[in-house]
Specification:
The protein is 42% helix and 18% strand. With 290 residues, the chain is α/β, with parallel strands linked by helices. Strands 1-2-4-3-5-6-7-8 form an 8-stranded mixed β-sheet, sandwiched between helices. A hairpin with an 8-residue loop joins strand 1 (2-3) and strand 2. GO terms for molecular function: hydrolase activity.
């Protein structure tokens, strides 16, 4: 496993490389899979699937600057714990620039990019900026818009989002504790309980100011117009029941992007924690078509 020496004040930090030896002796090319976590997580959200994926692929993970891992320093330098720049990250555009920068300075491209939740849309925007750096996009539990409108059902009413943002601002720890259960789902199964504890640790470890700023970016953004501009081949991956991103949002994205749709036969928003073997099966099926 290698660790990237990051550029100062980069928004994508603590990058790690796993695997990558496949093909070294037979002149074949090893696919590079770049895994990007979503809100409330860090790169450890991929820990249950990276061992299997790295057996035959080069796998790269990293932490977004808003994550708990970046906030506590991780393997990064002091730039990672600098004050969070809420204005800079008030849209996905800055995250997309950071993603492009990461792929460039690690010389990774073209990559199979897996973006979980908000990172799916970040990957879409980055691929529009630099399509040459992306071989395929895998959008796991992603959404271009969370708010409902007359012509679109994103899953949340405006009043619900206002309540979420108010709770983040006024009582972050209590909100994060409860929201983790909603995000993970899966009732009271052993896997769901363990996944909830793991995700809750990351969510509650975020700096409140970063959690609020990125929460605003996520819940108030409308990136539907981005979908039709994506030229890189794409697969939308969705679970059977996701309290954060309804199935009809995945189907909407599939239609707008002319993408493939893969359904993971489980519940919740973080299947890489609750059903890792199923997620690996889906990912390997996608990789087989790339």
């Amino acid at each position: 496993m290698g660790v990237l020496e990051k550029a100062p004040a980069a928004g994508a930090v603590n990058a790690r490389v796993l695997g990558g030896s496949a093909g070294a002796d037979d002149n074949t090319t090893t696919t590079t899979i770049l895994l990007a976590h979503g809100y409330g997580g860090d790169q450890s959200v991929w820990d249950y699937i990276t061992p299997q994926l790295s057996e035959s692929h080069r796998v790269v993970t990293f932490d977004w600057i808003f994550s708990a891992a970046a906030a506590t320093g991780g393997d990064a330098d002091d730039a990672a714990v600098a004050p969070f720049d809420a204005e800079k990250y008030s849209s996905y555009d800055a995250f997309a620039d950071e993603l492009v920068s990461l792929v460039e300075r690690m010389d990774l491209g073209p990559v199979v990019f897996v973006g979980h939740s908000m990172s799916g849309m970040v990957g879409c925007m980055a691929s529009i900026k630099r399509p040459d750096l992306f071989q395929h996009l895998v959008l796991l539990g992603s959404s271009p818009r969370y708010l409902n409108s007359e012509d679109y059902k994103g899953g949340f009413e405006e009043s619900e989002v206002e309540t979420v943002l108010h709770n983040i601002e006024t009582n972050f720890k209590a909100w994060a504790h409860d929201f983790a259960s909603v995000v993970v789902g899966g009732a009271d199964s052993a896997a769901a309980v363990a996944a909830t504890d793991r995700y809750r640790a990351g969510l509650t470890g975020m700096r409140p100011e970063a959690a609020l700023a990125v929460g605003r970016t996520i819940f108030l953004s409308d990136n539907r117009a981005v979908l039709g501009l994506v030229e890189v081949p794409c697969t939308v991956v969705q679970t059977n029941a996701d309290a954060v991103v309804p199935m009809h949002v995945a189907e909407y994205m599939q239609g707008e992007m002319k993408a493939a749709l893969e359904v993971v036969d489980c519940e919740g928003h973080v299947p890489q924690l609750t059903a890792p073997d199923l997620v690996v099966e889906v990912f390997e099926r996608i990789l087989g078509r790339v």
